[in-house]
Prior knowledge:
This protein has 2 domains: 2-44; 47-147, no CATH class. The chain is built from 3 helices and 9 strands; from the N terminus they run ααβββββββββα. The chain has helices spanning 2-18, 25-44, 137-147, and strands at residues 47-52, 56-61, 65-69, 73-78, 87-93, 98-104, 108-114, 121-125, 129-132.
Amino acid sequence: xxxxxxxxxxxxxxxxxxxxxxxxxxxxxxxxxxxxxxxxxxxxxxxxxxxxxxxxxxxxxxxxxxxxxxxxxxxxxxxxxxxxxxxxxxxxxxxxxxxxxxxxxxxxxxxxxxxxxxxxxxxxxxxxxxxxxxxxxxxxxxxxxxxxxxxxxxxxxxxxxx
Length: 162
């Protein structure tokens, strides 16, 4: 989806620069400024990775980190189908990342910081649920459980304990 979106959002301004009335502010806004603004705004929210600290998960963005405190973490498990059937209630649904608030029957309302839903790790807290997609989900679950003093083992992609 990201590749197609980039193609469209750069193609429209290219057409806008070479065709149409260049002295019309509405044309310039609609064909050049708006598509490039959408591209820029969504790009700055991209997720570049995750860093686990003693008390938080830092979600690395393009220009800042989003912090998810680990206090109250009850469980962490690999679930490649966690985002299946989700509805985005607020946020980005796939351009450079999946980020924001989503809802589905399995998790209810949850916050997501994801790039590849098939690598989903569900973090359940006493008051919220967060989904992230690290490169190595099983290793991530093992590490976060070690940091939080949990003895639970990661659940593998087959649904059986690893």
